Amino acid sequence: MRIEQLEYLAAVTRYGSLRRASEQLHVSQPAISEAIRKLERELGVTLLDRRRSGARISLAGRELLQPIVDVLESVDRLKAAAGDQLATRRMLRIGTVNAGTASLVLPAVRAFQATNSRAAVEVRNLQQDEIHVSLAEGTLDLGLVNLLDGDDLPPDLEATPLLVGRPAAVLPAGHPLAAQAAVSADDLRGERFVAMRSGYLMYRFAHRLFGSDLPAAWHSTDGAEMGKMMVAEGIGLTVLPDYSVLGDPLERAGLIVTRPLAGDTTVVTMTALHRRQARVLPAVLQVLGHLREQARQPLPVRTA
């Protein structure tokens, strides 16, 4: 058994197919396939489902993925302890919901790179369930998600609260409802509404807010960033965590504003997640520290 065989299998899982793993690793598909075949013969299990449409990791492969990831992380730690500079260039993989990208993740990555100039970082915008699965499989190192009161997390994930806020109505600055101190669900029902697509936390909250009486004009989109742009363009109104809007460039430029939701006491928390394990990678702890520091920063003041 060779380390590269394990790396090849982990790459097929991470990138979703043999072809994509080949492109990312700059190793030919036949070479990766043959290395994994040898590993299959050695272990006595089929690790890849090979079909005409391509090869993907099998169920048996997924069951063995966690021990494989543990071995690769142990190798990384061994290289780091030995002073191998290659280990410090291991790609740090971060998954985030849209609401955390601009306000938290990007400043934290910039601070991390200031002291780790040779480190590579991959940031992926994902839905919350995708982040949970990818963390469990070891294809992400760190994840940022929004949680509502009472939401449960998988027991194998460690949670660090970063930002606490409330869902708020997001409006174009010149909209008549912006003159109100608060906006009600009935106010929103009478407007074109931009909902997050199914799978996003704010999709779930919107259905809780409106119940069965949804706004008649209902648009949908992927994530907070596109939702804010649609509001700024006058396409509709939306509901997002207040911390994902306050300090946003569109809000600072005076194009969008937030208003509290009348009578709503829901709390939403931006939370960092990583796998529970005996030793967390130093890079993960560093980025987590930068995220905490960024979360403590005051929000920028909106420009005139």
From TrEMBL:
GO cellular component, one term: protein-DNA complex
Keyword annotations: DNA-binding, Transcription, Transcription regulation
InterPro entries from the UniProt entry: LysR_HTH_N (IPR000847), LysR_subst-bd (IPR005119), WH-like_DNA-bd_sf (IPR036388), WH_DNA-bd_sf (IPR036390)
Domain (HTH lysR-type) ranges: 1-58
UniProt xrefs under Pfam families: HTH_1 (PF00126), LysR_substrate (PF03466)
Keyword Nucleotidyltransferase annotated: no
Gene Ontology molecular functions: DNA binding; DNA-binding transcription factor activity
Keyword Transcription: yes
Lineage top rank: taxon: Bacteria
Family: Belongs to the LysR transcriptional regulatory family.
Protein name (record): LysR family transcriptional regulator
